[in-house]
Inverse folding.
DNA sequence: GTCGATCTATATCGGACCAATATAGATACG
DNA sequence: CGTATCTATATTGGTCCGATATAGATCGAC
């Protein structure tokens, strides 16, 4: 799922600037399983404009940089739906935490316990974020995404809870 | 968790060629939460060698390209452990599947059902892979990583099972 | 009341990383 | 006997991220 496709998808829900697209990842609905940086969003929007998949209108603002508001075109909408009909790339879950835990035998116990605590807290924050958005009007898709996130985070927390303690008795090895 | 750190970690478990490091991600222990491509592994090993964090010995083979077997140095081991003592980057879970489901209202029902089925099958394959490795000798870290993966995958499957059907009655919208 | 922080909004650059491709002989299978 | 897969290296094009730059607006703290 490249950034161009992600931008198209977001624009099917309404017009937006590059800045607003970026912020959608931090707030509402799109949390946790989709992301893109400014460094890829702005070039993506330019290319999409060249290709006629989105259109821009520049809204000049007094004493502010111009807003470039992007809208999806009919061609863009078709291209987006077509991309959802093709086989999807697989999920990619990169976890520095799991990687670090693979080497727990090389770390002092205190650090291992801390890794687990810190990670558990992060998961709890994400879970709380998902529950916050609960009240707002949602598409069935957003409902699904929130449920999916909840399911995974709850399971992760439960597992961490089970593991807590198991790494407190293991003998540590040289940490230098 | 950059590729250099990942390579260092793997080399703490024993010497390996770039090729073997890459393959470790597909087989044993490191499955699912860690990955790197040849295009980043080979340059990483070169740089690590320059920096003295790993050493190479070239094993000439008859009628085969030379094997470049990498070993971690004491400096490399220290650097690796130091990187595990610093705060870790957060997990990054990119899911084209969840992204597509966010737009289920734009897709024909059949496609949505297919998305769920296909994804569920992929998760089941991953779960089976984790259970396969069960028999082999494991470090506590590998045990943890396998348990973590299992917990998440089982929860995902359970959620998908609950959702199956919920997307069969939703009215579809134009798919072109 | 003014100073710093945060927000809106654009954009670029270096570097990291991936996917695909190239090379090339070995082995294994049908 | 041919073809696919395996061992093993490496590069290239392109995508993407993180950091940085710019710049005025707003808002809270002191």
């Amino acid at each position: 799922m490249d950034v161009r496709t992600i931008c198209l998808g977001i624009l099917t829900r309404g017009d937006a600037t590059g800045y607003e697209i970026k912020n959608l990842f931090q707030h509402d609905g799109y949390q946790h399983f989709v992301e893109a940086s400014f460094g890829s969003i702005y070039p993506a929007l330019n290319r999409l404009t060249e290709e006629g998949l989105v259109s821009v209108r520049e809204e000049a603002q007094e004493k502010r940089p111009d807003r470039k508001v992007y809208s999806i075109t009919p061609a863009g909408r078709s291209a987006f739906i077509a991309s959802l009909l093709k086989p999807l790339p697989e999920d990619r879950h990169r976890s520095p935490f799991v990687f670090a835990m693979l080497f727990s035998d090389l770390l002092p116990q205190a650090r291992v316990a801390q890794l687990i605590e810190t990670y558990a807290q992060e998961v709890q924050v994400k879970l709380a974020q998902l529950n916050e958005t609960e009240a707002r009007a949602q598409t069935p898709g957003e409902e699904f995404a929130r449920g999916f996130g909840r399911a995974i985070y709850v399971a992760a927390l439960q597992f961490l809870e089970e593991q807590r303690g198991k790494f407190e008795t293991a003998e540590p090895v040289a940490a230098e």
Remarks:
- The longest strand of chain B covers residues 64-72.
- The first helix of chain B runs from residue 3 to 12.
